[in-house]
Amino acid sequence: MNNRSASRATLRTLAYLVLTAVAIVTLVPLVYAFFASFKPSAEILSSGSQLLPETWTFDNYIRAWELGGFSRYLANSVIVVIGVVAIDLFASSMLGYLLARRAVPFHGAIVAVMSFTLFVGVGTATLYPRLQIAQVLGIDNLFGVILVELSGIGIIHVFLIRAFCESLPLELEEAGRLDGLGLFGVYSRLALPLMRPILATTGILAFQEAWNNFQIPYVFTISDQDLRTLVVGVFALRSTSEGTQAYDLMLAGAMIIIVPIVILFFVFQRFFIQGMTEGSVKG
Fold first, then answer.
1. How far apart are CA 183 and CA 135, in angstroms?
2. What is the band of 87 on the pLDDT scale with cuts at 50, 70, 90?
3. Shortest CA distance to 92 belongs to which of 212, 232, 192?
4. How many C-beta neighbours within 10 Å does residue 247 have?
5. Which whole-number Å values give the CA distances from 66 to 232, 249, 253, 258, in the listed order?
């Protein structure tokens, strides 16, 4: 018994050491970039290994915002994120629920095709054809960006919600049907309120993926710079005369992108962890 307890304590200690090492490796670049974004460019180049700035300046953020034209790009990012999150939550929750209850014909074939698509990962290979289709349909704009991004992130969210819905009790839904509710009524009035943890999780994931996505907005906005999102705008700083070697501007722009994600995660951290746990373990 004592040997077993000692072994568990050793394994627990090793697990904490590994997790601590992973956390350090993950967070150190982020922390360094955060403090470096407040350094003048000359200080970044002369004392790059020093973590804290000798001279704190917020001018990097002001110059990056004005030089990059981030006001318009921020509005574009907000439009894309709102569209992706809203449509993703509605479509993923409905399809995930229907697949969990086997309420659609050929649900097994649908799950198999979605799993194959998820495994193969044809996003990059099909990006150009999707751009061509969008141009033919006249939606090679922010609306097209929303639709193409949804096609890439929706499948994993459907599987998360499907796994979560399979753990929901059937008795409540059966009682709802006895009261005259149809399929959509059971989904919208009984099942959907119970999905709040997993919807918070998928909402955060959709926000993060839409906010940070670079490839799709970059390709769709090459011909129209006014449609750039914030991530593409930060990348475009490199092509400006001042931003070519201005690491201070690039770091400040990167922080402008990261801060909303960090705030959102801490606000909804409890729901995010609960949804990930219930959606992955119970399923």
1. 37
2. very high
3. 192
4. 17
5. 15, 11, 11, 18
Looking at residue 283, its pLDDT comes to 45
The DSSP code sequence of 249-261 is HHHHHHHHHHHHH
Cβ neighbours, 10 Å, residue 59? 12
- Residue 202 CA, chain-centre distance (Å), reads 8
Mean pLDDT of 184-211: 88
18 pLDDT exceeds 90?
yes
- Could you tell me the CA-to-CA distances from 210 to 84, 150, 169, 265, 283 in Å, in that order? 7, 9, 33, 15, 26
CA angle 76–78–80, rounded 5-degree value: 70
Instruction: Report, as an integer, the average pLDDT of 224-245.
Output: 78
Q: How confident is the model at residue 78 (pLDDT cuts 50, 70, 90)?
A: very high
Pair 274, 197: CB distance under 8 Å: yes
Query: Measured between alpha carbons, how far apart are the two ends of the chain, in Å?
Result: 34
